[in-house]
Amino acid sequence: MSSLLVLRALRICINQNHGRNLYKLNFGRQLSHFHRSINSTSSFPQVLSTHRSFASTTESKNDTNATLVDNNTYERVCSETLDALCDYFEELTENAQNLSTCDVTYGDGVLTVKFGNEYGTYVINRQTPNKQIWLSSPTSGPKRYDFVSTEGQLGRWIYKHSGECLHDLLQRELRKILKEQDFDFSQLPYGK
């Protein structure tokens, strides 16, 4: 089957429908049947619409529904969260006697906490297009957190697949690293 014939058939179909629909050709047909198809656009097998609708749920497993936040609210909440986490990590790593090397850096919306070769590196960063905070954990891997607010609460960063809050995950995982310290991530903004 000649690719020139296929291109000609597609051009005819698209021109007649002003590019609104894409036509799916059955390339398994015999060449003689294909020649008949070129002369009559009504014999093309099926029309595929180029319009798609996408939906995403804001419901987490613990039945809390996310309130969609506007860009300004997202930026404010995200900055407050990352600033507070940065300050808290700096305090915790300064007081960590069981860790020989620790490094906390924050810039351009990316918080990096290095606990050395034994425990790995945590990266927490803003994802403005998705209105999320992403976490890369050496223990549990990557996660994407949505800001979820419920009645009577300021809101929390929730991982929709498990319903766990970002601050709760950090509390659980860092308990194994910062063994000798008493700390509570839930006291930080958006941790409760």
From TrEMBL:
It catalyses: 4 Fe(2+) + O2 + 4 H(+) = 4 Fe(3+) + 2 H2O. It is an enzyme of class 1 (oxidoreductase). GO terms for biological process: heme biosynthetic process; intracellular iron ion homeostasis; iron ion transport; iron-sulfur cluster assembly. Pfam families: Frataxin_Cyay. InterPro entries: Frataxin, Frataxin/CyaY, Frataxin/CyaY_sf, Frataxin_CS. Coiled coil: none annotated. Its main location: mitochondrion. Gene3D superfamilies: Frataxin/CyaY (3.30.920.10). It is found in: Mitochondrion. GO terms for molecular function: 2 iron, 2 sulfur cluster binding; ferric iron binding; ferrous iron binding; ferroxidase activity; iron chaperone activity. PROSITE patterns: FRATAXIN_1, FRATAXIN_2. Its EC number is 1.16.3.1. One of its GO terms (cellular component) is mitochondrion. Keywords: Ion transport, Iron, Iron storage, Iron transport, Mitochondrion, Oxidoreductase, Transit peptide, Transport. Belongs to the frataxin family. This is ferroxidase.
